[in-house]
Design a protein that fits this description.
112 residues, HIT family, subunit A, single chain, 5 strands, alpha+beta, binds zinc ion, 21% strand, 5-stranded antiparallel sheet, binds guanosine-5'-monophosphate
């Protein structure tokens, strides 16, 4: 999709600190990390949010989770948090769905 930041990172048109890639996903470090490990896992194809991805490509949807688990394990974390912000009202700012993987510090519940 034109003018989508994460499509451009997937395509290599904008640099990203890529830590893992699979057939359907790319994982790269968040530019503004909120934890010692803060990685975004995105589908290669453009889908606006997690529910649309799940409806349109269930395999890629599952691969986001297995990729996140692989990255957490590679970074040495058994405990981690996964977040999909869906909608501007809860903080989604990039409308190419992305799974936040956060690990490496204590976390509180509920999230802010
Ligand atoms: P959202 O707020 O949509 O759930 O998450 C978007 C995330 O993308 C934010 O955590 C933000 O720091 C990250 N982000 C924004 N621009 C860039 C960028 O150019 N590169 C990378 N790696 N992350 C970005
Ligand atoms: Zn996109």
């Amino acid at each position: 999709m034109e003018d989508c930041l994460f499509c451009k990172i997937v395509a290599g048109e904008i640099p990203g600190d890529v830590v893992h890639a699979t057939e359907r996903t790319v994982a790269f470090r968040d530019v503004n990390p909120q934890a010692p490990t803060h990685v975004l896992v995105v589908p290669r194809a453009h889908h606006a949010n997690a529910a649309e991805l799940a409806a349109e490509d269930p395999q890629a949807s599952a691969e986001l989770l297995t990729t996140a688990a692989a990255v957490a394990a590679a970074e040495g974390y058994a405990d981690y948090r996964l977040v999909f912000n869906t909608g501007a009202g809860v903080g989604q700012t990039v409308f190419h769905t992305h799974l936040h993987l956060l690990a490496g510090r204590p976390m509180t519940w509920p999230p802010g």
